Amino acid sequence: MPKQYLNDILNARVYDVARETPLDEASSLSQRMGNTVLIKREDLQPVFSFKLRGAYNKMMSLTAAERQTGVIAASAGNHAQGVALAAQRLSIPATIVMPRTTPEIKVQAVDKLKARIVLHGDDYQDAYLHALEIAEAKGLTFVHPYDDPHTIAGQGTVGMEILRQYTGDIEAIFVPVGGGGLIAGIAAYVKALRPEIKVIGVEPVDAASMTRSLEKGRRVTLDEVGIFADGVAVRQVGKETFRLARKLVDGMVTVSVDEICAAIKDLFEDTRCIAEPAGALAVAGMKKYAAEHGLQGKTLVAINSGANVNFDRLRHISERAELGENRESLFAVTIPERPGSFRKFCSILGKRSVTEFNYRYADNSDAQIFVGVRLNGGETEKATILAALDKGGYAVTDLTDNDTAKLHVRYMVGGSPRELENEVLYRFQFPERPGALLNFLTELGGRWNISLFHYRNHGAAFGRVLCGMQVPKSDMPDFRKFLAATGYNHWPETENPVYRTFLQ
To answer: At residue 430, what are phi and psi to the nearest 5 degrees?
Structure first.
């Protein structure tokens, strides 16, 4: 089967618009990992993403009549730019349906390429279904972002370039996975010529549709997907891409938001490029895979698939990068409320750098502090700190992996209310667009008193809110119905230890 695609990839018409991107060594990352790390720089394409390859190859296959009628695509950004540029070069009318939550930088990029933009829905699935409706009504050709043999062959030229640019031994190639077009194309080419090279897919842990599908042996549709890495936020992988992945892909790795942020920092330090979260996915997976398998002295290739990231997201990324690299830990510590307590506490930390220290006076007995500490020795050093604090008689909770602590509570530490009854705490996620916060509060209504509220714009496609409400036990059945009726993703946090320590 790989040889069926081999000819299509070798003859793919991509270089009229795409460029052969460099395969650069990441010297700092190589030294730190003890392996030779090579980065395939697809962020250097004219639209800052590999998607142009597949889009152009598909559109080159259209008949004269299909070109005259026009094309339509659905995309959260990178595929949209690829289709728009290809259409501009080929003088084909193009309509792009994009979710209303698409980062503004991607909407503007498509607009500059003179494509007609339709904003519809809150995620890719909504945009996709609407695009199919328009295609049917107007007779337009739908250009699929991943599940089309022409698209897959276009993306496969990335694998062709890698093997041409590096002829030595390669242990593994790490590929970001959304719908599966890129990994299907690369695996089809690599396995046809160099079957000993492993092809490893990487997905966010909260958008692992290919991982789940391969585990089940059938395509799985996720109930919900995380949207931090919006370029790979796909509920279901393609039918053809799944068929190829089952036969050709050697394994999958899933990574967290913090690990992705750390990989973005790694790429910046070695290349000075700022990768989008989906673009850094392969580096994050490569680091995790190499550590888990004890790889040393090997050559590893990771694909930086894109660099379309909103500038205002960088604040959130930089805050989480140190945690993802195990260079920072967060703790909740109880110390006596008396003179000299802070000094004694800091003496236990020694000369370690304190990255964050939040405290407010509550009463005369104990003080609750939220502290961040920079680590040089990763998990081992964190264990040393926890042991030292325990020996010093301090009650301490590790908050490093507590999302509520990292997203909200670190910005809210300020004492606890003395008299507050029936408070329940929930975390919410809602589509971020103009007026979104007002709409959220309107949906929340006025039946139950809001006792705590924190919202912080991270420049992402979805807004995140931490909300406390006073709900008597007798009202809980109605309250749960209300939560379901809002349609917002939500998670109970009343039992979260960080809430009990700092806010309750």
So the answer is: -140, 155
Cβ atoms < 10 Å from Cβ of 3: 10
Q: What is the CA radius of gyration of the chain?
A: 25
3-state SS, residue 13: coil
| Residue for token pair 């052969």 | 20
Question: Worst-scoring range by mean pLDDT, 66-80, 137-151, 427-441?
Answer: 427-441
Q: Is 384 helix (H, G, I), strand (E, B) or coil?
A: helix
**Per-residue tokens: 117:** 């933009």
- If one counts every other C-beta atom within 10 angstroms of the C-beta of residue 332, the result is 23
Nearest 5°: the CA angle 22, 27, 29 is 105
Helices 104-112, 78-90: inter-axial angle, 10-degree rounding: 0
Q: Per-residue pLDDT tens for 353-407?
A: 777 777 655 566 777 778 888 887 778 888 888 898 888 888 888 988 888 887 7
CA torsion angle 74 79 82 85 (round to 10) = 30
Tokens of 492: 């109970």
Cα distances from 243 to residues 79, 125, 354, in angstroms, run: 22, 21, 50
b/e sequence 283-306, b meaning 16+ C-beta within 10 Å: bbbbbbbbeeeebeebbbbbbbbb
% pLDDT > 90, the chain? 55
Contact 22, 54 (CB under 8 A): no
Pairing mode of beta strands 71-74, 141-142: parallel
Following DSSP, what letter does each residue of 49-88 receive, concatenated? Answer: BTHHHHHHHHHHTS-HHHHHH-EEEE-SSHHHHHHHHHHH
Q: Is 441 helix (H, G, I), strand (E, B) or coil?
A: helix
CA distance 441 to 432: 13
Question: What are the catalytic residues?
Answer: 51, 305
Find the length of the chain: 504
What phi, psi does 101 have (nearest 5°)?
-90, 5
State how far the Cα of 264 lies from the Cα of 278, in Å rounded to an integer: 10
Give the E-state strand segments of 162-211 in sequence order: 172-176, 198-204
- Structure-block tokens of residue 101: 């939550």
Concatenating the DSSP letter of every residue in 284-332 gives HHHHHHHHHHT--S-EEEEEE-B----GGGHHHHHHHHHHHTTSEEEEE
3-state secondary structure 275-286: CCCCCCHHHHHH
Domains and CATH numbers, the chain: 326-401 (3.30.70.260), 423-502 (3.30.70.260)
Where does the pLDDT of residue 445 fall: very low under 50, low under 70, confident under 90, or very high at 90 and above? low
Tokens at 146, concatenated: 């991943």
Phi then psi dihedrals of residue 428, to 5 deg: -120, 155
What order of strands is seen across the sheet that includes strand 299-304? 23-25, 36-41, 299-304, 172-176, 198-204, 251-255
